[in-house]
Every structure is written in structure tokens, then in C-alpha cells.
Amino acid sequence: xxxxxxxxxxxxxxxxxxxxxxxxxxxxxxxxxxxxxxxxxxxxxxxxxxxxxxxxxxxxxxxxxxxxxxxxxxxxxxxxxxxxxxxxxxxxxxxxxxxxxxxxx
Length: 105
Description:
Blueprint lengths: L2 E5 L5 E5 L6 H7 L19 E4 L12 H7 L9 E3 L12 E5 L4
Parallel strand pairs: 1-5
Antiparallel strand pairs: 1-2, 3-4, 3-5
């Protein structure tokens, strides 16, 4: 089971135990970190699960699809390492991945 390091908007760090096959968004939500709204429930239609992925792990991620890219374009806080947590499915290769919850739009 991969561990996920999550940094909140206030800078508080949480180490969460994820489950292979669950998304970053589900892992954060299921562990009670409620500042990640995830309003659409993981359907890639709202961008309220926007996170910044630590540069060390960006190369391990699944490629971004056109819908995710378009939704991230609607954020005033998009960065090169921006991703939607609902689109990042955890696996063993993601053990120790660090993400920071993006500012609210």
C-alpha cells in the first residue's frame, strides 16, 4: 500500500496510507481532509481536487488527458506540476508521493 504525503493549504503535513487503485482524491477525502472539496466525486468535471505534485514524482504519473488539461486551465493557480487528484490512480510506484492542495479558486 502506497503512502501519500499531503500538505494542506496551511502547510500542515499528513502522511496517509493509500490503496492501490484508489485515486489521490479518494485517499485524501477518505482520510478526513475536507479542504479538498472534490465536488464532482471524481468525474473530472469540477477541478476542486486540484493538487500540486512534488517534482520528484511528476514523471511517475499517468499522462494528463484533454479533459483534465482543460479543467486545470480554468484555475488561476495552475502550475507545471498541477494535476487533478481524481485523475491520479495510486499504485506501488507512487509510494511516498507528496502533493500539496492548491489554493481555492
